[in-house]
Write the structure tokens for this entry.
Amino acid sequence: MTNQQPIYILPEGATRQLGRDAQRNNIMAAKIVAETVRSTLGPKGMDKMLVDSLGDIIITNDGVTILEEMQIEHPAAKMLVEVAKTQEKEIGDGTTTAVVIAGELLKNAERLMEQDIHPTVIVKGYAIAAEKAQAILNNFSEDVSIKSIDILKKIAATAMTGKGAEKAKEHLAELAVQAVVQVAEENKVDLDNIKLEKKVGGGIEDSELVKGIIVDKEKVNPNMPDKVTNAKIALIDCAVEIKSTETEAKIQISSPEQMSAFLAQEEHMIKDMTEKIINSGANVVFCQKGIDDTAQHFLAKAGIYAARRLKKSDMEKLAKATGARIVTNLADLSAIDLGKAGLVESTKVGDEEMTSVSECKNPKAVTLLLKGGTQHVVDEVERAMTDALGDIAAAIKVGKVVAGAGAPEVELARNLRLFSNQLSGREQLAVLAFADAVEIIPRTLAENAGFDPIDLLTDMKNKHDKGQKWAGIDSFTGKVVDAWKAGVIEPLKIKTQAIKSASEVAELILRIDDVIASSGSSKRNAGAEMPHGMGGMGGMM
């Protein structure tokens, strides 16, 4: 009998993991990611200090920021980072919740797999539970609208609790709600119309809402006024300077007279442009392109304030704030196109010269000027404010809210357990595992606050069984309280999106039974290389 040659189907250096090994490895990686951010959850969550290769520091407990900055390498762990990114994009908050639930779903699935329940059965059960969870959450949520100012303030304050901005959360929540109500149009909120501007200096409580836009551009000429009241604003999307020819051209000048005539003609053309601006009645000009030195001189002489090379996004925000129309041809500029603002002035924010357009009448774009003692503080205030604005917008968009403090998770788990009684077969075990996984949120809140999670969870379940659907954990006293009355309120979409994303990624990871990693020798496969024979977690281990 001849010796059979081994057959290689993979390139040299490729690694492969099959069956239970692959599943165990992927679940382990995902669990480590969830554990990493778990300690940041809730009002008593701790912060992480992230130091990059250049020595730059970020101090935060914002889930998505931590996961993005950690540069995770393991492919299954990267999938959990995607969950956080999706949550951030959809709502702007609840990233830690989504990741922690996903990690717990996988942990519970591993336990079922050890009892010889096939992954596809678990996936099916999880899918059933996730779908039912959406309906359950919708059923016990409460209605909210843009007129529910008090509830919206509580939502914003809840989003900021446990973050660096917490000490001024009442003031910041007030600003967030004012900003959202100001830019809302027919119950629709476009958060792009709320500009966040940061300034190092003063305290967090000195943050303010500017009814207008702060633009990071200075006036183009020192002879222009520093302040213009009752501003009539022209927004111009064309250069106030002589255009270069499209093709290369030469002008031959053979005498000084010709030179003088050429320069005089150029000046005349620029003067024509500036006169069109002056004749429109504008006393403030924002130009998306350049403004020639000669044009600056004529505008300054007419007492007009001008700034140039503005970002397109800033021009659009100015149009919404002032009611101006962006003009692309100076010949078309007229008084109808001008916007209005009570005050336009040159201001200094930190070391930067800026232009503040404020006191606009019913502006549909506003600026939140955030302040703090150091750059790290201001950055964390910005992250907290982003969460708060996202939560308010999500609450208004869906029109539904729930109490927080772990109450909706316990209520959801209770209803899922009742629902599982209608099922037969092994899917029932997966639905029960799903219900157990959701309870990781109240358990983590208790642990992070330094209390016994078993006692608190038992007490909460007891109260929920008696019909108290908003019974949640007070992280400061360690008692079970009515979270709604305590003012801990969150948008329903945080919960529905977190459950949806977490269950989808858990199902995806559970379906994988074979992981093939190339050696990275070819460029096409370089991105798929997995460190340490699949066991590495990049900067996480």
Summary: Confidence is low (pLDDT under 50) at residues 521-541. The radius of gyration is 30 Å.
